[in-house]
């Protein structure tokens, strides 16, 4: 087989270099399923992967925590040539060559059959960010959230997780408040279904107060840090906060008061090692009742392998809106 193209990073003297390289199938890591990748997507974690002090475990590496495409070869009976599949996270793009490549090879245990109701392209517009938004909402609902409980706040709302959470929640009949640092994107957030828009500062705790006015029935929080501190203090009695991210910081100071006086729940959201049974449920829901209404509208920006470095820089600076699809 002829060579194919992959975006490869390497680390030399604490500096990361990237280039598009020709690879052969024999360069790919071991695995039972070889996939012709149609689309990947760029997540915040891919931005972290390109930093010198990085989450990548070995170099050279093909980053890309998401991919979707068609099986070209499988030694596992669950998958056959021609099957359309999705792979997100696990070790993809961290210690195992990932999705920024025309071909990928992975263990069968990581592979999700494309659910009916989604195209390969839609699956990657969603990607890990969409999966995480849906998993967050699923967990909030498992903990009692319904549209009757009141307003749900989505933080980091113009980002990948945030945009898709706003869309899904509003489609499901929730009153959605969205917080964003980007004044220019209020129209975008309203188009996705947000009823109210709050500034980043309004949802950041700068005084360490343990309790505030009870404003939100629940929150989807990809920001963390002092925003999470604020959310814990402003969640209504019995409500929940689903935390998935750290764009606002990894450190969180908390007191026991919201938990013991208001019975609130702090739900940790992990998409990376999410068990396969739950993973399949989340993808089925994303293909049906949780399928966002605006996937083909302002959420998506499509790029080539060549454009990855500029997007990665923007994502780390908080300058990207919605989701970035990489077309092979
Ligand atoms: C799409 C998903 C996301 O975007 S999540 C956000 C991106 N991820 C991160 O920013 C996390 C990156 N990890 C770190 O920064 C560090 O691991 C740390 C700060 C969380 C902890 O660092 P420390 O040096 O104290 O410990 P180790 O790195 O040696 O890890 C300790 C222990 O935890 C295991 N571990 C590390 N990363 C993960 C992970 N992402 N998920 C689950 N477990 C993780 C690691 O293997 C070690 O366990 P051991 O049993 O010893 O192997
Ligand atoms: N737990 C998990 O399994 C997952 C975690 N994540 C995490 O969720 C977060 C968001 O991921 P994506 O949506 O892919 O990223 P993104 O880059 O698309 O969105 C990030 C959002 O955070 C905002 N932001 C940036 N800096 C901020 C700050 N200092 N304060 C408040 N907001 C800030 C940005 O403006 C943007 O709206 C990241 O931390 C990522 O690592 C994402 C997917 C899965």
From TrEMBL:
Q: Which UniProt keywords apply?
A: Oxidoreductase
**Annotated InterPro entries:** Acrylyl-CoA_reductase_AcuI, ADH-like_C, ADH-like_N, ER, GroES-like_sf, NAD(P)-bd_dom_sf, Zn-ADH-like_protein
Single annotated GO MF: acryloyl-CoA reductase (NADPH) activity
The record's SMART domains line, in alphabetical order, gives: PKS_ER
EC numbers on record: 1.3.1.95
Domain (Enoyl reductase (ER)) spans 18-326
Report the SUPFAM superfamilies cross-referenced here: GroES-like (SSF50129), NAD(P)-binding Rossmann-fold domains (SSF51735)
Q: Which CDD domains match?
A: MDR_yhfp_like
Xref: Pfam families: ADH_N, ADH_zinc_N
NCBIfam families named in the record: oxido_YhdH
Q: What is this protein called?
A: Acryloyl-CoA reductase
What is the source species? Metabacillus idriensis
Q: Print the organism lineage.
A: Bacteria, Bacillati, Bacillota, Bacilli, Bacillales
């Amino acid at each position: 087989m002829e060579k194919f193209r992959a975006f490869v990073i390497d680390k030399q003297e604490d500096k990361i270099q990237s280039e598009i390289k020709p690879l052969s199938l024999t360069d790919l890591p071991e695995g039972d399923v070889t996939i012709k990748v149609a689309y990947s997507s760029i997540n915040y974690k891919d931005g972290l992967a390109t930093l010198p002090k990085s989450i990548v475990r070995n170099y050279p590496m093909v980053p890309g925590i998401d991919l979707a495409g068609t099986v070209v070869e499988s030694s596992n009976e669950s998958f056959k040539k021609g099957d359309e599949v999705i792979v997100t996270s696990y070790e993809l793009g961290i210690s195992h060559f990932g999705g920024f490549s025309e071909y990928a090879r992975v263990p069968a245990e990581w592979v999700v059959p494309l659910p009916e109701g989604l195209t390969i392209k839609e699956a990657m517009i969603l990607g890990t960010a969409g999966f995480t938004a849906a998993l967050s909402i699923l967990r909030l609902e498992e903990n009692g959230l319904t549209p009757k409980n009141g307003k749900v706040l989505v933080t980091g709302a113009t980002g990948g997780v945030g945009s898709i959470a706003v869309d899904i929640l509003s489609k499901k009949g929730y009153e959605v408040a969205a917080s964003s640092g980007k004044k220019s994107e209020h129209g975008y957030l309203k188009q996705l279904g947000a009823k109210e828009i709050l500034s980043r500062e309004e949802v950041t705790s700068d005084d360490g107060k343990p309790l505030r006015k009870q404003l939100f029935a629940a929150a989807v929080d990809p920001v963390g840090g002092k925003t999470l501190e604020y959310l814990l203090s402003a969640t209504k009695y019995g409500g929940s906060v689903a935390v998935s991210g750290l764009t606002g910081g990894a450190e969180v100071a908390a007191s026991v008061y919201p938990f013991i006086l208001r019975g609130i729940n702090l739900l940790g959201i992990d998409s990376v090692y999410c068990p396969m049974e739950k993973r399949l449920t989340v993808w089925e829901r994303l293909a049906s009742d949780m399928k966002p209404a605006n996937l083909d509208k302002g959420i998506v920006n499509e790029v080539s392998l060549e454009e990855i470095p500029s997007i990665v820089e923007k994502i780390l600076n908080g300058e990207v809106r919605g989701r970035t699809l990489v077309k092979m």
